[in-house]
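Quick start: what a row looks like.
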Amino acid sequence: MNWNDFQHLTLNGKTYSQQALLDFCNEAPQQHMNELGSFLSDWFRDTDTIALKTSGSTGVPKKIIVKKQQMLQSAAATAAYFNFQQGQTALLCLPMPFIAARMMVVRALYSGLNLICMAPNSNPLEIIDEGTQIDFAPITPLQLQSASNTKRIKHILLGGAPISENLEHRCQTLSAQIFHGFGMTETLSHVAIRRVNGVDRSNIFYGLPNIFFHSDERGCLTIDVPYLENRIVTNDLVTLLSDKSFIWQGRADNTINSGGIKLIPEHIEERLLPFLTNRFFIAGLPDEKWGQKIVLLIEGNPLNANEINGLKELFKLHLNQFERPKEIRFIEKFKETPTGKIQRFHTLQLSLDDKEFR
């Protein structure tokens, strides 16, 4: 499989060869088209490798170098899973500097898909032309959150963040077949997928063909990908069901040790989700008594005293004594990556200078 064999791309119904494609993207007035042109220029450059940038959700974004052939092999795995056919339509509405958008372009090059391109925004499904049908739409959970319907979409692949319980429940009313992908820049997008709605819905992630999973001594997932040279070691805590399937539990780097009890914030957040409308997350701060104390950080303006007391009563009803937040802090705006993920560490640091806590 040679990257030089993939020189044509169809955008919004029109197929372009290499130079015409670059000219069209670079001369377009929209920034997202210019960014697409920049990536394609790198792709067509006479070198076997290309630079990618990680999202920075758990640290500082970093640059990694990968082989174009590896990206094509990842694209082939997705094409086989979703049975892509030449001429089918796919949505491109994610930020081009990051892996999800770049892999969508490579999938279109590989499978001969027609890319419907639009600027990244919080609700792309609402602005698709009335007569346009989309076979495949990779979007973030945030981009699906506000969608009123998915009647013009066949398959939706969610990625980039966990899916909230509320969104998962609402997905059951949507007509599109909705999937959740697990992956990262280092794995060149998703390596495992679970069905979110329909009769096959499940909380179990299943590996794509020839992808195998193990867990290390921390209980974190490790991944063997046939087109990557080294085993990928993650900080994702999982319940490993087999070498082809797992249930995601949370992030090891988020784990809190409070009074000698190890707590996974994502488990606590799941039980608080029905009672909080604003974005929030659970974190740990150093504490002389507990080692780390549980803190609830809420995005937006502070609640009043009655609302705070109401929350504390909910803590007693739904959380055990070790899980109950010792403080509630309010941050006007959470720190985010360019792809919309909450940067927990940076937001927590921001909260240390904020006086609004109870």
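That is the whole record. The chain is about 25% helix and 30% strand. The chain has two domains: 3-252, 255-351.
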